[in-house]
Amino acid sequence: MTDTARRPGAVFVHDAATQTAARHVRAGDDVVLLGDVGSGRTTVLAALAERLRTSGTDVVTLAGSAAGRDLPLAAFATHPLLGPRSGARWGLPEATAALAEAVGTGPAAVVVDDAHLLDDASAAVVAAVTRRHVSTARLVLGAPVGADLGARVPDLAPGAVVAHVAPLGVSAMSALLADALAGQVEGHLASVVAGRSGGNPRVALALVRAAVDAGAVTRVRGRWAQTGALDLVRADAVALALLPGLPEALVRGLDVLAWFGLVDLGTARRLLGADILAALDRAGRVVVHEGGREPTVAVSPPALGQALRLRLSPAAHADLRARADEVLGSGMAGPPALTLPAGIEAPSPDLPDGSAHQQVAILMESVRTQASQRHRTWLERRDVANALPLLRLRLLDNLASIDVDEIFAGTVPSSADDADELGSYVLLRGQWAACTGGSLRDGLTHDTGPTGRLVLPDLDEQVLAALERLSTPEPSAVGVADLAGARIPEPLRDFVLVLRVQAAIETGAPDHALELLGDWTGSGRRRVLGHQLDALRGDALLLGGHLEDATAWARERLSAAYDELSLIGVRLAARGLATAQFVAGDHVGARRTLSLVLQTGRCGPVQSPYDERILGLAATLRARDGEPELAAALLDELRATPRPYLPALDFVRPWAATEVAYFRSGGDEAPDGEQLWAAGEEQLAMGRLASAVLCWAFAPLRLTHERLAQLEELCARTRIPVARPFVHLHRAMVHGTSGDVLGAVAAMGVPGPLVHVGLGVAHERAEQEGRGAFTEDEVRAATGPAIAAAARPAEAGTAPLTSRESQIAVLAREGLSNRQIASRLYLSVRTVESHLYRAMQKLRVSDRALLRALPGTALVEE
Length: 862
Known about the structure:
By secondary structure, the protein is α/β, with parallel strands linked by helices. Helix content is 57%, strand content 6%. The strands form 4 sheets. Strands 4-5-6-3-7 form a 5-stranded parallel beta sheet, with helices on both faces. It has a 3-stranded antiparallel beta sheet with strand order 10-12-11. Strand 8 (217-220) and strand 9 (223-226) form a beta hairpin. The protein is flat.
């Protein structure tokens, strides 16, 4: 169920937190609700109070305040109902009596926001009344993360359940920004802002509003999109949102950390002192990463570090430099280059949201710090060794504030240039040329620098022609035959290996791809190509049917890439892990992994095709989860992704379009698989056999005998075990009995367009065999509940409700109109109508009056 609901005039993005707190209160628990400053904690408490009142619970709301912390009974003095009457005596007995009367004798809840600021007398009154009504009155305390409630109000709710206001994910962030900007937003923008803000709503809104004012976020094709570098946007409102109430000593400590960038834990303690660092950690304003060679520290969220850096005055820079020299020794640490402030969002393994956003902060700060140091070093010595890391940060990691043309135009040869580094430099120059209207050949052979001598000396015409043909966005036959016997320069051999492995995969020989990779030892200087080869190994394992090995490999590489703080490595490994999770049917894990990797932003321009599978999987999962607007936005971004070359396994665009169209219809409309079949024919004509197999196998069609023969002949020419369940279903639909078809459907594991077609054939064939269509119980027994939910026509009315259908049916039962439901859930009216129609068909009711007559248990999803 979505974490986003909508209330009149504003989007509400913490429905899950409200439900969790309400569930604990109804179970008889006291609750402490913790959330970051600006996370929406106060809004959640207000929504909780409203929900409890609706269910018949008496609710009393109080609030602590900094101004009233030292004033006795300050929380009562300003309360509209519990405060003193004019001229009446007022003290502890009166306040206690007023609160006891408000609590009454029935179910009640006392909700106290900012409980850490509650004055002692008010806290004593609340504790006394709730103890007196311990069987009927529950206590809900709200406080910011890091607040020491035990020290401030030890008598309040000592055994309370702790609940958290979680950071916003991509879906909730998309809804929040769409509401604030009065228009839909691109999935990329929502993801990047979620990463930069740490999922904090107040920070996200401050950052986006500043970006709109700066022209870095504008409308594109009807949606709000990132059109400029967020790196340079001054968002002073971010600091204003997070720093009030923070002691001055802690703010000074944050300035130091922001100036330094990513710093090891020992240095951070020397600069700030252990007490200041611990206090910042408790307040949630720093994040500590324990991986890698030594723990590292950064400001959290990343947008705060950026805001602090950009507001530092020259005098403040001088003071910070002097402090660094005093503590660490002269020249031990230099300031970050402010020409290159924070740039890239960070990924994470599939961990809970809080941990994920912390890893986002570390990786973002890592990239920014690297860029600062590398740019300063390159300005001092403009050789290949210093230019290459900067180019990678822009061309692979997409740090948009780096001027690539400046680097290529200003880099000069050096006697210390390493052959591997020169090869990587020349290759990046060629790929950049191909992305910007030139050709790979031009970039490999022409140096635009001051000397014109930064080229590979032994690059012959045969290799040039082959590389140019293989690295092209135009459809062409796949293969590396033109490189057979060619004298490939040593610095380009890993790149050529990437092409060879891609060719083996595309020709349907994943086992041969693994053989090629088995001989690769790699070079530390060419680790970027190593990440690409690692990604290809995962694809080869997956295509070869080694699902567990592919999943384990992706997890291992994701962990290693994160410890290396390698952004391109994390992106590619997370992409592989999400693919394996999706194939295994772990759609929750795949969605979480994709949500995190989307927060890293896009791959750099020379590797943009790697984004296609990320966007395609994300769009499909959002459509499956009943988020059609976000799915459509992601699909549009997939279609618009630049292609400097054709990606390996080029099936994602037509496959994602088919999946999204099917699930956006609610699964009621027969899927259209002709686009996928036509795409497979195009891939086959180019010799891209694996892509053709996947297009044809995934196509939700009732194949003719001729088409089935084509598919089986193609499968015989390739070795792609992962496609076998799909091919088996196609074969059963052409030749099998109803039982054969149903068994083949069961092997698919989860519902989808092809399963929809298969179920239709199974029912039709069962009737042709004279036994009648399968009952839901028969389908459920054969396939499991997930597929059984999609098994029968809507008019049969016995399939269980999906979570979205259940949610909409409950609201309709409560009397909300379709338009009101659409407003609350942030859906289109048409989508609500579609879900409600299917729910009513399943529940066998024809109108809302009959729906209201049903017991609430009938509307619960299975």
